[in-house]
Specification:
Two copies of one chain form a homodimer.
Chain A: H1 3-27, E1 39-40, E2 46-48, E3 51-52, H2 53-69, H3 76-92, E4 102-105, E5 111-114, H4 119-135, H5 138-156, E6 175-177, H6 179-194, H7 203-214, E7 217-218, E8 223-224, E9 227-229, H8 237-241, E10 242-243, H9 245-261, H10 265-283, E11 295-296, E12 310-311, H11 312-329, H12 332-348, E13 360-361, E14 367-369, H13 381-399
Antiparallel strand pairs in A: 1-2, 3-4, 4-5, 6-9, 7-8, 10-11, 12-13, 13-14
Chain lengths: 400, 400
């Protein structure tokens, strides 16, 4: 590919990162209670002051990561805002006894909802871990590692706290959902980034995660299924056949990153070929462009009403994945896939005028919901992808 | 309107009812375990054998109602199938101690999921009540009334059983959601249909329901909000502003039916003008036709990803509502609205070839999901609407 195109990617992504970060800096800070307004309209207007714990944790992480890795964001005010939000989370987000975290809080921190999953907790741990890097404060490190221990205990030993008095029912299948081992692998990487000496401590759980993720390769390696059983077999019904191409691709770069760090070429191949390229092929909408959100492996209608929508984060993850895979392999056809995603998102998702991305598009690429932040969309996928892609493009163009 | 058009409505709807009932009779019976397959593809293929309790209860009700009211369906095999499904529900759907019902069961009846709501229970009560009419069996009547008592107790006295050990959280607002009083009013009507002498027993709860429903008229009578607080005030944030026009219209005919039965002309006016006509005006998509699923009262993007989709049941309820309102008032402009809905659904939702309706359309009216039965769509809204409209059209054309 022409160097000119790589330069264009770099320039566009750098500018977009600035717009994105400025959007959150300008509109999302709750200076009264701490934490962030995460429901923001197209121009940054607060349309709901509920605080969604995933998004609060993710934004603390994003601010701390930007502070740690981007010279222009190594700013005292950014770090202070992140620390204030972390204090809010520490005080209000977790159940003091079990450390189970809530899903949503009122603006002033009263709990609204809890879920039987580990994700609020995972983003909580990520937030404190990255802040520990920014500040060197042991208190943050201890908080992150303590939550990490809890999560591993719930997932591997005893989920009782996680289910808060609502045990599994007799007919519930024992599922291995892709998101759980993915998040664990992501957290291990986060903890190692904080402290490389932790690698040994988490070596076993990382390998367990890799194996749990690989179990999702099904039907002779042609598909990644979102849910399989604990013996690695396909589950019956719609939930057994459901595929989320963007999620498979995200798992792909988690695996590739792990494979590169640990010198595992066979795993790198699997990550690229099975988790990125295949799902990209069957997940891309040949008619309108963009990745479908949900698909059924037998080609039936998925039961998720939003199946044919185009979501921002699937494309963010695809950008990271294909650029990482290109950087690792030098294969031009992989860079072409990055280009394909880049051209789609800068034509459809990106708001050059007010900053950040339109998260939810109709199948045909028109904007379905015009807000920039919502109950499931905060300051995370866009800045993470732009920051990672910017750095990779820098490295790629420097060595070209 | 020309009599010719009314004849056309009647003919089309009668034929559609036959196609619809035949679809379920042919494809949905689980002759091995009892109950119904409720996940059926475009031609009736079973694509998931999970048994969704709402849909099981609703189909028992629909079969019993068809048996009771339509000569051609007063068939032994239909009643037997309904009774077998009721036996399945009685055995597996409810917690033996609390009577809280599950949301979903495996094909052989093991519980998969429970929800903190009353709806599985409501459709359970409706099923047994209508079967009591079909058979005259006191056992069904007792089962229906016992569940009705439970539901009223949970809603009015103590929701503990309903929340199964997961109490409300400190930040959860005390909401009056439209669906709860609507369902109670619908159940009262069902119990009175079973036994007119029950009217007095349920007079107070019916009035409470009417008042709870009326509290959703907001902003000087211009909108029906889906959630208000227990003092009848608007709630903050997205959930306070959300409107579901099809649901408001359904509440409209529940109210109108109650108003007619109880000789309440002022309430009939409210039902028609506030709950039907207004929501139809702001809920109808001027560009592509059909009712939007969700809207925000301030005109912001709703946070529900499926907000701009066109759903079958909203149109079923609008058909019932406007025909009932026309029959009651004789106002031609109301019949025009029925016609508008009729023309839309018979162009977009109805499958003349294989029977039943495509439930989920994209905003532009193209089919988004081609199945006829799914986790939230069973044998209920289509046959109920067609049966009711057929009878009303018969009455209207006979008196013309």
């Amino acid at each position: 590919m022409a160097d000119r195109r790589l330069q264009e990617f770099y320039k566009e992504i750098s500018e977009d990162l600035s717009r994105c970060v400025n959007f959150w800096l300008k509109h999302s800070h709750d200076t009264e209670y701490g934490g962030f307004f995460d429901c923001l309209g197209p121009r940054g207007e607060v349309y709901d002051d509920t605080k969604h714990v995933w998004l609060q944790g993710r934004q603390v992480w994003a601010y701390a990561r930007l502070y740690n890795e981007e010279e222009q964001y190594r700013r005292k005010d950014i770090l202070e805002t992140a620390e204030k939000a972390a204090a809010f989370l520490k005080k209000f987000a977790k159940h003091p006894k079990t450390w189970k975290c809530y899903l949503a809080l009122t603006r002033d921190g009263r709990p609204i909802k809890m879920q039987r999953t580990i994700f609020s907790e995972c983003f909580y741990a990520m937030a404190f871990s990255e802040l520990a890097i920014s500040t060197g404060h042991d208190e943050y490190r201890v908080e992150a590692l303590s939550m990490m221990d809890k999560i591993i205990y719930w997932v591997r030993e005893d989920p009782t706290d996680l289910l808060f008095g609502y045990p599994p029912m007799a007919g519930e299948p024992e599922v291995n959902p892709l998101n759980v081992p993915m998040m664990i692998l992501c957290l291990v990487d986060q903890m190692e980034t904080m402290d490389t000496e932790l690698s040994e401590r988490y070596a076993e759980i990382a390998e367990w995660s890799v194996n749990q993720i690989r179990a999702h390769i099904q039907r002779n390696g042609t598909v990644i299924l979102e849910n399989v059983d604990q013996e690695g077999r396909e589950l019956p019904g719609s939930s057994g056949r459901v595929m989320v191409p963007g999620h498979s691709i995200e798992a792909g770069w988690f695996l590739l990153n792990y494979a590169i760090k640990n010198g595992r070429p066979e795993l790198a191949d699997t990550a690229i070929n099975k988790f990125m390229i295949k799902p990209f092929e069957y997940g891309w909408d040949k008619e309108h462009g963009g990745l479908f959100y949900f698909l059924d492996a037998d080609g039936l209608s998925p039961v998720q009403l939003e199946w044919n929508m185009k979501l921002w984060w699937t494309h963010n993850e695809a950008m990271i994945a294909f650029l990482m895979a290109y950087q690792h392999t030098g294969r031009l056809e992989i860079l072409k896939k990055f280009e394909q995603v880049f051209d789609y998102v800068y034509a459809k998702h990106v708001d050059r005028k007010y900053g950040e991305w339109f998260g939810y598009l109709n199948r045909d690429g028109t904007v379905c919901m015009d807000f920039k932040g919502g109950p499931w969309k905060g300051c995370f996928h866009v800045p993470r992808a732009l920051l990672m892609c910017k750095k990779m493009l820098q490295e790629i163009t420097n060595t070209n």
